[in-house]
Amino acid sequence: MSVIKYESAVRGPLIDGTKDYHQITEDILKPIETTPSKLWKIGFTIAVLLLIFGVYSVYREVTYGIGEWNINKTIGWGWDITNFVWWVGIGHAGTLISAILLLFRQGWRTGVNRAAEAMTIFAVICAGQFPIFHMGRVWMAFFVMPYPNTRGPLWVNFTSPLLWDVFAISTYFTVSLLFWYSGLLPDFATIRDRAKIKWRKRFYGVAAFGWTGSTKHWQRFESLSLVLAGLSTPLVLSVHTIVSFDFATSVIPGWHTTIFPPYFVAGAVFSGFAMVQSLMIITRKVLNLQEYITMEHIEVMNKVIVLTGSIVGIAYITELFMAWYSQNPYEGYAFYYSRANLFSPYGWSYWGMMACNVISPQIFWFRKLRRNLTVTFFMSVLINVGMWFERFVIIVTSLYRDYLPSSWSYYYSPSTWEIGFYLGTFGLFFTCFFLFAKWFPVIAIAEVKSILKKSGNKYKNEELRHELENDSIEEFTKKFSHH
Amino acid sequence: MATYSNTFEQSAGNKKWGTILTGIGILTLLAGIGLLGFSGDEHSKTRFWAGLLQNSVYFLLVVNAAMFFLCATTLGFAGFTISFRRVAEAISTLVPVFGVLALVVLLAIVFTDQTHIYHWMDTVTRENDKIILGKSGFLSKPFFVIWTIVAVGGWTIFGAKMRKISREADDTAMDTETAKKWLFKNSVHASLFIVCFGLTVASTIPWFWLMSIDAHWYSTMYSWYVFASTFVAGMALIALYIIYLKNQGHLPFTTKEHLHDIGKFMFAFSIFWTYLWFSQFMLIWYANIPEETEYFRIRMHGEYRGLFWLNLILNFVTPFLLLMKANAKRNYTIVTFAAVVIIFGHWLDFYLMVAPSTMKAHGSIGWFEIGVAIGYVGLIILLVGRGLSKSPLVPMHHPLLKESIIHHT
Questions:
Q1: Domain A2-148+159-469, what fold?
Q2: Which of A8, A108, B36, B174 shows its CA 20 to 30 Å from the CA of A264?
Q3: Residue B1 domain-assigned?
Q4: What is the rounded distance in angstroms from the CA atom of residue B101 to the CA atom of residue B57?
């Protein structure tokens, strides 16, 4: 097999500038080996403050009870479960990028996979807080674990999708963490080997698990990635599928609909990629990584966004259509009175969702807009606002008027501590992300290097490459044929 | 490299078998018209139209999936497909032909008032059934007919355009800038097809053609389920033709690496189909609402019970076990076997969508259903062969061809 790397000249480079192997290491490890910038410190402080506020909000809820929130008998799930689903959704892009795109051999994943996986892990941690504290008596949270116990015949309800959630999300979290960490090993070893400070050498030395970079290590590394990718691929689908079951197994109008599983998955990938865009656009600027997270990366992710946004759009329209087509008056009420009617109490949220998730992402059909940073950043935030609306629409508009008009709820708006809890998860998320950006290589060094000679700008402009490009098919095949 | 021919000539054997099988199909159709279609017996009549509906819609959507595959990979900027993309193009040339056949069947059902197929067309039912009456804004003959024509026309026109653009990569080499522009043109037309596909196959068309058979019943998943079913069968058909052409000494740049990837598609989308099948089934089973469970009740119990489970064995268990190992996806025999099982399995899946609600307890897979399917297979052999012979087998100046040549999984 020839060692010449080839990629068509029509593809833009995935590593700009004139990088070589050494320069890549230098660029990516710079934040770790230097003291953090002022911007980092300010950002980190804000994140920690938010986190503290969140902790206090949760303290209120745990101490004084669930009454600190404005959820009520009719709207038993409110902001908390909305936020739970929202965060879990965001946690989907990372594993999709690291697993499915690895199986698809997509070179561009190497620029963003590390940060996206980190984002996934932090998002899932944030998500997990909501159902746990929604239990009210959080000290009983271990009751969700099925094990033989002294509580008599009291087992968890295996037929409940809420329990399936426990399994699905904890599995997802475990595998994502393993995937992320195993990918970090070679990079930790690089930091260790370059370290001039003693504690750094020791810290990253322990973290690198004795990685030496031997052929055997790489061999195992490669096969482990493939195994984990194979395990994660169904997990990308299963997590949000099971979250959708929380709703769809019920008989509540607006919740019980068969399209929910794939539609939730598409929506999750949609919001996850939007969050990756938001984070990456800031990160590449702050850490000066524009030559690794290039416009090619941004554009390709915008393509995923327009695809998944349109899939979600088809699902919304399908639901709306079926609510009428079914001629079921309750479905009709949920969709045409509680949702699509702009002048109903929560009509604003439905149309906010439609505008943010279906209509506005359509601008990404145009290449110019896909490659515009300002537009991309604005859209990525807008989409996550829209995806929050989606979960709010599903939960609140289906619940606030149940079958019994005497228990219809008054207008639901969250209490300070409900909002505080949500803000607190932002604090948690960004605290983690800032720490990650400081102490961990935000781009997978070893993996980026693996595409350098194929997709790096410097190598794409080599004489040899032009030669290959201009070769006739016969000459080309001769060069690449097995000897 | 050994010498190879970039043109396909339909062999006498290919033509012979195509003609024989098509002949069997035509004879079956004629016999069907005489024995079933014009029979006084309502069951026989229903069977005639149900069999035609199942076959014509299934095979149309399968060949259309080839164009979907092309457009999706074009938009995804895939390089690996180029060495065999003409195979998918040749399969997609059947869309207009199968489209017309399906149109004839569907329009005949509508205009000759086959109310055992679409009982929402029955005027008496309409007046007395509040639910059907309520749906009549959608389930109406004019809307059905117009949308059917629009859909088939859309697939035909956008597909033909894609094939036409593809031919521009045959004769003259492109420099990088021209190539970029040309790929852009490709992606514009591919997205037109995809949008059309999303508004038809992934939503409205299965509601009209298949779901409306159970006029009271509804499932939001239905169209995506139908899509998954026909897409995986479409991939299987592409795999079969790649193996056939390789065995004939064609497609020099398509290697086991490419077949491996097609095998992955067959494997992955068989699981995806199962995922959609399970999601639809489980949610309906779990909620246990009579209006919804009736769809599965008739399929899970009684006459169709065996086929109901066979469907899962053929379309999930078999491809799952057969194609799981990497080497299996590179083995001509295993992939061929899996592809045949998948194509037959999803044909059966379509039978289960059509027959139980139309034929009730009188359904059976017999000479008519199989005969018509054989006819379709014959047409595929004849027409894909013709499609392949009409253009070079590899677009030699496609800007991504070299990537495809060195592709390895």
A1: Formate dehydrogenase/DMSO reductase fold (1.20.1630)
A2: A108
A3: no
A4: 9
